[in-house]
Specification:
126 residues; mainly alpha; two-stranded antiparallel ribbon; 72% helix; elongated
Amino acid sequence: MFAEEAADGAGNGGSWWDSVVRSFTNQWWVFIVVLAVVLIVLTLVCILTRGKLLRFRTIIKIAINCVLGFVLLFVINFFGGLFTGGAWSLTPKWYSWIIIGVFGIIGLIFLIISAFAWPGMLVAAA
């Protein structure tokens, strides 16, 4: 009910929800590819060092952190679109997904800071 009212108030060019979903569908595959590459590299390091350098449990923790970073990005875009009527969203460039894929939530915090410190460098201008 609340989402329908906000969508009606968004005006022309589609609703804020449409912009959030569009951003999500345009970028999800990049996240999946980066996460897969990171997990493959970490698994190879774990296998080659026989678990001395990196344990399998640590790899699982890193994967969960990265997935939570992606979910948090979606939530930030959801609320950013909700409160600004679709005028603001955080859309990382393709190479910025590596930061989220490697560092997870900490990488997302860095991207949020970089959106204000260096506009347009790591995050697409909204």
